[in-house]
Specification:
With 71 residues, the chain is α+β, with helices and mostly antiparallel strands. It has a single domain (3-59), classed as Alpha-Beta Plaits, CATH 3.30.70. The protein has helices at residues 16-20, 46-50; strands at 3-6, 26-29, 32-35, 57-59. Bound molecules: iron/sulfur cluster (2 copies). One iron/sulfur cluster is lined by residues 6, 11-17, 33, 51-53, 56-57.
Length: 71
């Protein structure tokens, strides 16, 4: 469960993480994207790769990042 949350100061609510997550970890309240089902995260990091704002998605730094899938 490396995805801890979304930094509200950085997030621009572009929706990309919400759209790309294969596990539907993210939820929305209006335009606001948030981490709704952290326990379902499978650590693919597609959300972080697709996010246009560095550091907007807060990742558990205690775990090393695996090599992302090649798509
Ligand atoms: S790391 Fe993968 S499974 Fe976890 S929230 Fe991001 S896109 Fe979803
Ligand atoms: S992809 Fe990044 S900037 Fe866009 S909604 Fe998700 S956390 Fe916010």
């Amino acid at each position: 469960m490396p995805i801890l949350g979304i930094d509200r100061e950085k997030c621009i609510n572009c929706d990309k993480c919400y759209q790309i997550c294969p596990m539907d970890v993210f939820g929305k309240i209006g335009r606001l994207v948030y981490v709704a089902h952290q326990e379902d995260c499978m650590c693919c990091f597609l959300c972080d790769i697709d996010c246009p704002v560095t550091g907007a998605i807060i990742i558990d730094g205690r775990r090393s990042r695996p090599i992302p899938f090649p798509y």
